[in-house]
Amino acid sequence: MSQVDTRGGAQAPRSRAVELVDCDVHAQATEAMLARYLSPPARRLLERYGRRTPRVTEWYPRARNAGMRVDAWPDKPGHIWGSDPELMRAQLLDEFAVDYAVLEVLSGQDCYDHPDFAAEWNHAVNQWQVDEWLGFDSRLRGTIAVPHEYPDLAVAEIEARAGDERFVAVLLPASAAEQLGSPKYWPIYEAATAFGRPVAFHTGGYVDHRGAGYPSFYLEYHVGNGIVMQSQLATMVAGGMFEAVPGLRVVLTECGVAWAAALQWSLDAAWELMRADHPRLTRRPSEYVREHVWFTTQPIEEPDDPQHLVWAIEQARLGDRLLFATDYPHWDFDSPKQALPRVMDASLRRAILCENALELYGLPRERSA
Amino acid sequence: MDKLDCDVHCAPSSYQALFPYLSDYWRQYITQAGIRLNGLAHAYPRGVAAPAPSSYDLLADRILGGSTAPRVVIVNCLTGFETHRNAHFSAAMATAINDWLREEFLARDSRLRASLVVSTVSPDDAVSEIERVGEDPRFVQILLPVRSDLPWGQKHNHPIFAAARAHGLQIGLHAWGRAGKAPTPSGFTTTYLEDYVGNQPIAQAQVLSFVSEGVFERFPDLRVMVSECGFAWLAPLLWRFDKDWKGVWREVPWVKRRPSEYVRDHFRFTTAPAHLPSDPVALDHVLEMMGGVGMLAYASDHPHEHGDGLPSLLGRLSEDERRAVLSGTAAELYGWTAAA
Lengths: 369, 340
What we know:
The structure holds two protein chains of two kinds.
Chain A: E1 15-17, E2 21-25, H1 31-35, H2 40-49, H3 56-59, H4 85-94, E3 100-103, H5 115-134, E4 140-145, H6 151-161, E5 167-175, H7 186-194, E6 199-205, H8 218-238, H9 241-244, E7 250-253, H10 260-274, H11 285-292, E8 293-296, H12 306-315, E9 322-323, H13 346-361, E10 366-368
Parallel strand pairs in A: 2-3, 3-4, 4-5, 5-6, 6-7, 7-8, 8-9
Antiparallel strand pairs in A: 1-10
Helix pairs in contact in A: 5-6, 6-7
Chain B: E1 4-9, H1 24-33, H2 56-64, E2 72-76, H3 87-106, E3 112-117, H4 123-133, E4 139-147, H5 158-166, E5 170-177, H6 192-212, H7 215-218, E6 224-227, H8 234-248, H9 259-266, E7 267-270, H10 280-289, E8 296-297, H11 309-316, H12 319-334
Parallel strand pairs in B: 1-2, 2-3, 3-4, 4-5, 5-6, 6-7, 7-8
């Protein structure tokens, strides 16, 4: 039997080495786009009552362009920012030669929904990703939206999607009804880990502004996203979550990175003072962070002296833990061409722009061009 | 070296110690309700913190003796950081605590200063109390907790700042506060360790509030001393604050300058807790990122333990820097003479 060898010469499929992975891209579904996936009872609820609860944009209106890039609104009926794959491909994938883009669809994140509805709604978000995005462009990867306040239902959704390797992570909000380190959510983390997926916590969700109380402005809310995540990371470590799920990898998304060192010094110092009271914690808090925690870069901090950012990354030992992200199509989009300061050496830039993400998500180092 | 101590705790050992300063009504209320002071046990549990001195003699014995004693000490009484919601009770307690502070501490030793205790639930009552005792120069700042129902910079609190400035007082923003609701930005905690570390993120939210609400445009002479909330977090917070402000300044047109400039001009931080890297080079970097030690003011935070960060920090500083931390920052903030 003779076969034509198509692997060499002019017949070989062209491939390119991966150089840029964008780990936080927002595809956004309208209610109508998801409604078609719902059962008649769930669709009736949506039609009669809507989502019922105020969106964060109602609490903290964004004073210009509704918080989006001004050019991100598609000129297509029925579409909103982030809902049109063609526009995203032109403005992001092609414009910046992105090799892989990880979609984080925030349309499912709410904790007010009835469990029946929450399960269907998140299932719809994922099926919409499959139907409209993951097949649209081979550079796209998805994250599994889950009804996180109902962990058994969330686990079922993870199981339903785990066979599709294009889903590279499980997506949770950065604020929930309970602290994200609470044992309530551990079954979700166990399932994600069992299926080889990190858990990405994305800014947003049930932000109750406890502690100092509700701020007045989007400015405070938005800077505060980093503050909330500090608090969440503290409780993840202190509550023993990383001991309970040893293989767990978490990605803290859109919350900043430069605060990571100071929080670890504080946690370590507190642990030194109280370690005998925390028998579950067999190691210093910073060691759990080092082993289990990744950060996306956007919105990356911009000190006047860019060297300070490099120091902050070194202090937190994040060189192999940072994942580049643009946050397309939001107003504070970080450009792959400009966001990382020139004082970063080439190996650190390369780690942040692609190596760390390839390693974390197990993505191929070459892709067809 | 000259030393000004910006945070030493004191607390009455019982409500009964405050009875001389409370009306019959409140004495009966307390007695009939059977409530007791517990030393702010959610903040300072018995296993990790010794009780704060309840008398001048105890305080003097512990920190005012010997040749290394501080030249000036600010006493902070957190007993007013109640959990209850009764504004009338809160106002009565503030009055009683201030009178107790004057009688038990300020009258006993000319080295002592105090934070003026106010109602934490009623700005009106806070203003009344400032007007009642604010002329006493031994009160140097208004004591506010970092945990709050609403951030302190908001408009309804501005009369407090106006009254403070009218009496030459600053703001002392101190760790802890109301315990009856979820204490952190992310919800209820299950360990003290989270609460302890949690003061630092909460303090960050308060910094954002003061600046974003334009407090320092309205009260250009107002300063805020943040006590027992750490400071290593400050530089990264300001990097992000400045960046976001550059993008969304239209929302807060009364913020005329970069947020970091307001913070550098108006905020100071006590050295407790000094949660810092053990590597000296990293420590140098942290200080450089903060723009030096000019915002730091020494506090023993007696009787609370925070590890060995403070001696490590002081040991790393030049003599000039050490002098600034131990006395210069506080002298400038409170208008005290620079040296004895």
